[in-house]
Amino acid sequence: MLYAVIFCIIMGCYFSTRNTPAAHNSTTLAWIMFALAMVVGMGDMLGGYDRYSYCQLFDWTADDVLAEKNPMSSDSGIMGYSHEMAYVLINVIIAHVTANRYIFILLLTLFVYFMLYLSLKDYLDNYPLGLLMFTALYFFFTFTYLRQVCATCFAWYAYRYVIRRKLLPFLVCCFVAYKFHNSAIIFLPMYFIPIKKYPKSLVIKVMLALLIIGSTGLSASLYSIYGDASGADERAAQYEQTGHNFRLDYVIEVFVFLYVILKNYDRIPNDVKHIVFLNASLMFCAILLFFVTNSSAGRQSWYYMIGIIYTLSYLVTTSNKSSKLPLCIYILMTVLFLRIDILWGDLINPYKTFLTNGHRQNDHIYQLYEYDDNYDKNKLYRPLFYLK
Known about the structure:
Blueprint: H1 2-17, H2 26-41, H3 49-66, H4 85-95, H5 101-123, H6 127-137, H7 146-157, H8 159-164, H9 167-180, H10 200-215, H11 222-230, H12 233-240, H13 248-263, H14 272-290, H15 305-317, H16 325-344, H17 364-369, H18 374-377
Helix pairs in contact: 1-6, 2-5, 3-4, 3-5, 4-9, 5-7, 6-15, 6-16, 7-9, 10-14, 11-12, 13-14, 14-15
């Protein structure tokens, strides 16, 4: 219910501010992003296994800090992510101010949403519409995929350097993203994609070719190559084994996005900013099709998702009064929002914060993965704030 209320509030902001200066009020954007961050950050282990895994690693890191041991020694748990040192470092930094997993999640979430706020503020012209798309496409993932969410926020920040053609700061952002999650290597080509509007016929042919290749399952083999190259072969194998079912929902989602974009192709200006985000939106679609048989690999499209958000919001904002596009996009985003809300089920519903002890009834994830029963008795039993 809470998530539906959030979506409806943002929807109300969108409809009440259409074609008004209030649609570009950065203060309102900041408050809404802060509210979303608090909903995510205050959540009590929502989202599934990943939160428990990351929190246990953080607790071990904080234990080392409190014991005045080196948390980055070769035998420490967090060094299992030694090939993603940005994530190691942010764990160590937060462990110097708190030893409580809930405060860790809250601080990390606030950092992520601050970075996302900077990107949405600088790129979008219609904040409520962009937020509506953000909530439908990405919001739920910030509950659980901590490393990749951190990587994504740096990738989105880097688009300003693609637009300004500043290679060095772009590479720095890419490197930081890569060191949060090695999958961010897929974002590196963004800078080098020629800034031009490609013929619609070419776009369609390329997308069809990628769908055919993806349907064969060939793209799944890239995970083993990635693992060998990054040294994360065990985790890459886990990703590769997550699932190889043909994702019809990916295909439908891409078809709808491409239909809207190509139908309005001539309305997209030829300036650098619009073309960069147009190409990013096409990359988003291309990756979904290329990884159409791998559930985990679809997450690689997140690095390009800001392109979809920007391009669709521009087309809706600049559509004429008689256009049905705004209503179609609203319906599409509602469907995408409900898809995750319903499919994730008890992973996120009902919502519960860590301000109350205990756990949700019939929470099978808690039964499977809770590693410290003391948290169930007192969420704040570990030290909350200190300086070490």
